[in-house]
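Hey team,

Filing this mostly as a record. A colleague (T.K.) asked me to run one chain through the structure pipeline before their review meeting, and I want the input and output archived in the tracker in case anyone asks later how it was produced. No errors, nothing strange. Just documentation.

Input sequence:
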Amino acid sequence: MNSNGYARIVLGVFTCLFACLAHAEPVLVLGSFVNESNAAKHLQRIEARLNEQGVLSQISLKGTPYYRVILPIKGRPIEPLKQRARAAGFEGVWTWETDLATPKMPKTELATRAPFIEAAPQAPREASSARRSLAPVAEPSAPDRSPRAQTNISGYLKTYGVIQDSVANDFFETDSIYQAQTSGRLMVESFTDWMVFQFHYELSSLSVSRSIGGDLQAFNIVGDSYRVGDLKTSLTSDAASKTQVYQNLDRLNFQVQLNAGDLTVGRQAIAFGAARFINPIDVFLPFDVRTFNTEYRTGVDAIRFQRPWGELGEVDFGLVLGKDADQSTSAAFVQIRNNMGGRDFNFSLIEYAQQTLIGGGVQSELGDLGFWLEVAYVDGDYDYARVSTGVDYAFQENIFGMIEYHYNGAGSQNPDDYLSLYQTTPYQRGGVFLLGENYLIPSISVQVSPLLSVALMGILNLNDQSAYTSIAAEYNVAENFYMDFGLYLFSGKDLGISPDQTLMLGSEYGANPNLFYSSLRWYF
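Output structure:
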């Protein structure tokens, strides 16, 4: 890559939305195959992970049969169902209109479905995974009929009430602090048989009972990382005000579905890796695990092309553009994914900030255990390796557990070095946020009832013995309306003074105050 190449890149702004001409029931497409047996196996995975009844729909293109794995929407809002599918590992999800007049159930007998239980509300829901909507399949064109277009408008309103515990140490004291986080997102998606336009805009407010120093890890404020330019993030004129209002133009992209693959231009979500909690390969704005609202990954400005490779593989490459599309702030990537022998493999090569990342991973099964391994090595001004590996297990139909080990070569075993790490490239541009080197991350989720789920997750820094524990409960109050409760507990050594009389962290989590939150979420 060179600076001249970056200078030629210009992202267009697309403002034309397609009129809503839907005449049939929309469905969610989670895969297209030329082999019926492969489609049936994919449907089995989907039903097990999502606890939804899917079907195979057979269509014919130039005399060749194709099999689409679909989920009927049945009048529900489309976007929440898409997010559930992406969170379960099905990223290449799109909407298709069909009358479902000729659904074709697989000949093979499907296994008993297990309920989908989300690992932890704090984990990013727009998770990285292999895209499985791979074979380029198009609905046969009817004579004398122009392509249909459809526009979907959806979104959410969320509010979080937070009580943060008092702080008392050798440096300062504060009483309990109260926060109110409120977010509203508007999402517009327009599409025809061969193109898609996507627009997401979010408006958020943060009110705090008293001014505090440092960042709030539980609230994500979008910076300018991997964006050519942006709207003014803060809409509040008084920076000292206890109430701040922020805006985020999070998606603005246009996708063309070509015979060779999908070309997407504009602000979009790009995710990497196979790990469940910490993705070593993911450098593009991953969330801190303590952040509340992580349902949608932060959008980046990119030009991306995704080409199918066989029935279960994909080659994905593109440019991610930083401020002013300058080479020093931009990145380029190649991802290759495929399934061999029932195992999902991925390989990634990313060039960013004078750094070269080479990584790969595998998702498979070890007997009754699900297994994953993800490795990344970064070479450049800062050389380091990161590794995540773990297993998951369904103890019963409604109890699901996971445990992951993470090695962070960009971190340090000595807490005295923690504060200085924030100024290094891995933390500024490489998506690293953990400060230590060795971590153990267990999680268990229980579906108490069809409407109530409870999750427990912990992150243990094995080097400084500090820990972060999250206890969360989600209750489905009514259709598209949810209530959440959660408790963040922190333990470890508090702030200290270094030999040269400067402030230092005694441990990664010890200085964090405990907090309790409750939230209401409504989707439309």
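Quick notes for T.K.: Residues 3-140+149-523 form a domain with the Porin fold (CATH 2.40.160.10). DSSP finds five helices and 27 strands in the chain.
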